[in-house]
Amino acid sequence: ETSENDVAGFVMLVAPHGRKSNRKVLQKRQSLAGNEWPARLTWPASPSLYDRLTRTDPKPQMNHDAYPDYYLADILRETKTIALVGASPNPERPSHRVMAFLLRKGYRVIPINPGHVGKSIQGQAVVGRLADVKEPIDMVDVFRAADALPALVDEILALETLPKAIWGQLSVRNDGAAAKAEAAGIKVVMDRCPAIEYPRLIG
Q: What's the pLDDT score for residue 55?
C-alpha cells in the first residue's frame, strides 16, 4: 500500500501543477510504493487517495470558556455598527449604561426593543426587530436571557446580510446557538461585556 512518505511526495509533486499536466507529471514519477502508474492514467488516479489529499479539516470551534485577547480585540476594532438587542430607556439598566459607553467610543448603536418602537434611547431611534434595520450590522449585542439566544440566532441567520459577530452580555450563553451561528461564519462571544473588554484591550 501507499506509505505516508509516498503520499507526501505525491502531494509535493502533483499539487503545484494544473489538471492538464497531471498525467505527464505522474508518468514522470514511474513508481509509487513499488507500483508503476498506468500510462493512460485518468484523474483522479485513486478516489480514496484523492480524497485524502484534498480533504479539508473542519474549522475548530471557539472555546467559549476562555477567549484569546486578540479575538475580542479584533471584533471590537472591526465593528462600526452595533444592533443592541434589549436596549432599555431606564438609566439604571445595564443595557442603557453599556449603550452610552459604546456611543462615547464612536460606535453607531441601534437600539432594538419592540416595546419602544417610535421612541428614542439616548438620541437613537428604537427599532422593533433586527429585520427592520435598514443598514448593515457589524455586531449584535445581546441583552436577553440565555434561553432566548437560540431564537435570536435564528432571527439573525434569516437576515439578508449577516453580522460579523454576535456578542452575548454577562450570563448570556448558549453553546448550541453559538455553534449554529459559527457554522454560518459569524464570530460569537458570550458571557462578556464590551464595556469591560474595551478598556482592557483597546484603552
A: 54
194 vs 95: CA distance, rounded Å: 11
Which stretches of 79-193 are DSSP H helices?
A: 94-104, 149-157, 175-183
Beta-bridge mates of residue 83: 110, 140
DSSP code of residue 133: -
Region label for 90, one of left (φ > 0), alpha (ψ between -120 and 50) or beta (otherwise) = beta
Q: In 3D, which of 52, 112, 119, 49 has the Cα closest to residue 84? A: 112
**All cell numbers assigned to 75:** 471584533
Q: Rounded distance, CA 150 to CA 177, Å? A: 5
Output phi, psi for 161, to 5 deg.
-120, 120
Q: What is the pTM of this model?
A: 0.71
Backbone Cα Rg of the chain: 25
The list of the chain residues with pLDDT below 50 reads 1-46, 50, 53, 57
Q: Beta strand pairing status for 31-32 and 35-36?
A: antiparallel
Q: Are 178 and 188 in contact (CB under 8 A)?
A: yes
Question: What is the per-residue pLDDT for 62?
Answer: 85
On whether the CB atoms of residues 152 and 163 are closer than 8 A, the answer is no
Q: Which of 133, 75, 128, 123 is nearest to 99 (CA)?
A: 123
d(CA 3, CA 164): 43
